[in-house]
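A quick word before the example. In earlier lectures we treated sequence and structure as two separate objects. From today on, think of them as two lines of the same record. Here is RDD family protein written that way.
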Amino acid sequence: MSDAQTTAREQGTPFNPAFDVVSHPNLFEGILRRRSVAFIIDAIIIAVLWTVLFVVSTILTLGIALFFVGVLFPIVGLGYNALTVGGPNQSTIGMRMMGVKIKMWHGGSVSPLIGAFHALLFWLSLTIFFPILLWPLIDRQKRCLHDIFAGVVAVRNT
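And the structure line, produced from the sequence above:
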């Protein structure tokens, strides 16, 4: 029995060999770099989606949409993550380009609700307390705290 299995049993937590760093180190190689680049790609996509939606809604509502600028951006970002991470590919467009997939910690698929919740936690950690994003530097699975709280793990799509 591996050290990870022994530790998991001692702590009373379930052990999932599918995402064990010792058994499958290739799933986590370069994952932080890949996720960082994927974030930049996705941020550009969300900004473009937001701009198009904002311009179209401003024209259609004769300027009334200008009052809803602060609400529109989070809705686009959460919706994008819910539909992509919570969809059949289990990854955003940027993640697909970088070969990253989001899975539930137990190996299951991410639902759209969990995908939106994961994005909400990420954006809150990014805007409220940026140093929290340094957690993967000490985590064996390179999970951020918003990954842990949402119950997901990012792995290479091999």
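Notice the following. The chain is about 55% helix and 5% strand. We will return to this example when we discuss secondary structure assignment.
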